[in-house]
Amino acid sequence: MTALRLDGVGVAYGGKAAVRDISLALERGGWLAVVGPNGAGKSTLLKAVAGLVPHDGSITVYGTPTDTLTRRQRATLVGYAAQSPVLPDKLTVTDYVLLGRTPHLGPLARETAADLDIVREALDRLDLGGLAGRNLDTLSGGERQRAVLARVLAQRARLLLLDEPTSGLDIGHAQALLERLDGLRREDGITVVTTLHDLTFAAQYADTLVLMDHGEVVVAGSGHEVLTAARLRTHYAAEVEVLTTTAGHPVVAPIRSR
């Protein structure tokens, strides 16, 4: 089943196009990584799918055109985490993750025992149970990123949009977060779309990569198909070698200029 379909999607800010005529499809349970240089339109594309910016063209999530959905209905299907989310420092981890249940509550309704069970499950799955009562401002960067992911999981959305989920994390914490995300995807059958600056991580975890530049899709395919030295030179102005791990995944290695 197709989880996400974009047909001719475009976004403009102040009359200037940020995303142009994007068409793509992602099957249920897949992982799509959107890559590209700064200013390519990656974050704007995710915001369009999340319903945060007006767009041209059509976006369909699990067979339903998003322009027919209310904001609350959309939030039950699509979970979104911004690149630099604003976290209320004095809120506890539990209370923050509980915000993910908001789309499922009626007007003036309070959370139920079932909602609290879902929050506890999300915390446990991300090894945050021991931090449930801690304030957000006492967490490390990696713990805060996991709290953001837990909030999205508590939303019980079928499509997750994560804008640079490894931003600010060292290689070990970034790898651990992506491993957890991949495990959750396989266990729950959720569909994942991420933007990632780390091309090696993108190629190792995502099923499909989409390279964007100047608001347009340059190429889509596997890591080996998308990440070539010539293409990265053209679109990133970077000199690299693309190596291959023993597991067969591409690794992008910068080359110091002489």
UniProtKB/TrEMBL annotation:
Q: Which UniProt keywords apply?
A: ATP-binding, Nucleotide-binding, Translocase, Transport
What InterPro entries does the database record attribute to this sequence? AAA+_ATPase, ABC_transporter-like_ATP-bd, ABC_transporter-like_CS, P-loop_NTPase
Ranges for domain ABC transporter come to: 4-239
Report the SUPFAM superfamilies cross-referenced here.
Answer: P-loop containing nucleoside triphosphate hydrolases (SSF52540)
Q: Which GO terms describe its molecular function?
A: ATP binding; ATP hydrolysis activity
Keyword Chloroplast part of the UniProt annotation: no
Query: So which domain of life are we looking at?
Result: Bacteria
Protein name, as recorded: ABC-type cobalamin/Fe3+-siderophore transport system, ATPase component
Species for this entry: Saccharomonospora glauca K62
